[in-house]
Amino acid sequence: MRGQPRDSNTALHAKLGQRVRLPRQRTHIPARLCVPGGPAAYFATLPLPTMLKALVAEGIPSYVSSTAGTYLCNQTLYWTLHTVSTRLRRPAVGFVHFPLLPAMVAGAGLEQPSMDFPLMLRAVETILGVIAADA
Length: 135
Hints:
By secondary structure, this protein is of the alpha/beta class. The chain has a single domain, classed as CATH 3.40.630.20. Helix content is 36%, strand content 17%.
């Protein structure tokens, strides 16, 4: 799974999905549970340290984050991990955020970090290579 933060110029890999989904800033939507009765959190099952090492070796800025955030990215990661938790053969599950594309930043007049698409594509190819080798 992948998301898009507006404040990072690195590929960010989340290692934890939390049960509580917090609202986006400046909204009046109350916090709620992603899955009522579910455990407090699930850990991503991707080989995050190996992915990070491979990405850095390729010259792709990257780091591992504690969480997938507090809103939809977190809910997506938590719900997916919860859904596969009862399967006998569980797939590798994780969440990667990528920065905005340079054209998105320029077009919106934002002062935000960005990453060009060929670099993002290389990152995805590197990540998939690590996952395939780990399987």
